[in-house]
Design goal:
Strand order of the largest sheet: 1-2
Number of strands: 2
Length: about 300
């Protein structure tokens, strides 16, 4: 039982950066903007967060810098897709390519370098009184680091915002019918920009989290496809931030399954286990294609909005 609890607790740690990126992507897509540049934004946030943390030893500056860097990358996407009305899919893919090259270029001198203990030490496990003593679930969910708890709160806050506030109603209207939203006097472009930037900020923090709490030594492509998993998790969760949490646990579990099973000397290649999260991503996207008519996908998702065509 202790081994199972440790396994699931590790799955939470591995899955949380995906949760940050998924919440951000849900908010972006709810505004009608499909951003496939999540991987790029996470990499930009990771390398800037690592550089600041390595240079200053201050975890709060590192996290803030990572979020700002992710938001800056998202602004590029927003400028091209919202202001210039470029194709959202092509722009997102370009952002991923840019983010990969940017991170590998800036991170090149730091390959093999490790963040100072003053940064990584802040993100140790902090058990929550009473909650951490709940049988089975307590040690898994409530004996984690501070960024995990913030992710829980963000998922709940995002769900409340989307479905129980006036701002969330306006956001959903923009994503469903921007022409109707504009006719009601809603600032469509402003809402799109705000949520695209918020998506970048959360993705940047998610990328930096990998450096802070999972892999404190820099390596190229440190995000390792988690941005693409986040895009699939948006569909898996039905565009609901609250449902993204169990999906995150599932993908985190698949990510570390091979490592945990190594000691049993199974006659299965390690590479098979390494591909499981990405295989699940394909499965989720395939199933999502059949649920399209019944899902909560915004009606204007991926479509550029031009006020003069109203």
């Amino acid at each position: 039982m202790d081994e199972l609890i440790l396994f699931l607790s590790s799955a939470v740690v591995v899955g949380v950066p995906i949760l940050y990126a998924t919440i951000g992507e849900i908010l972006s897509e709810k505004s009608g903007n499909l951003n496939l540049g999540v991987e790029g934004m996470m990499l930009v946030g990771a390398v800037i967060g690592f550089k600041i943390g390595y240079a200053t030893g201050n975890p709060f500056l590192a996290a803030a810098g990572a979020g700002a860097a992710g938001a800056a990358a998202a602004f590029l996407y927003g400028f091209f897709t919202i202001s210039l009305r470029c194709n959202q899919i092509i722009t997102g893919l370009t952002l991923t390519i840019f983010g990969t090259g940017f991170a590998n270029f800036l991170g090149g001198p730091y390959i093999g370098e490790r963040l100072p203990a003053s940064v990584t030490g802040v993100f140790h496990a902090i058990p929550i009184p009473l909650l951490s003593r709940i049988p089975f679930a307590g040690p898994i969910l409530f004996n984690q680091n501070i960024l995990v708890y913030i992710a829980y709160l963000l998922a709940a806050a995002a769900a409340v915002y989307l479905y129980y506030t006036r701002g969330g109603l306006r956001l959903r209207l923009v994503g469903e019918n921007p022409e109707a939203a504009d006719a009601l006097g809603i600032q469509v472009s402003a809402i799109k920009y705000a949520h695209v930037l918020l998506s970048g900020l959360l993705s940047g923090i998610g990328g930096a989290y990998i450096c802070f709490a999972s892999i404190p030594t820099w390596q190229n492509n440190i995000v390792a496809g988690k941005g693409w998993i986040a895009v699939a998790l948006v569909i898996f969760s039905g565009w609901n931030p609250a449902l993204a949490l169990p999906g995150t646990l599932l993908f985190g579990l698949l990510s570390i399954l091979g490592i945990r099973l190594q000691k049993y000397n199974l006659p299965v290649s390690q590479y098979f286990f390494d591909m499981l999260p990405y295989l699940m991503t394909i499965v989720v996207l395939y199933i999502g294609s059949f649920r399209r008519s019944k899902s909560a996908e915004p009606a204007s998702l991926g479509n550029s909005w031009f006020r003069e065509t109203r």
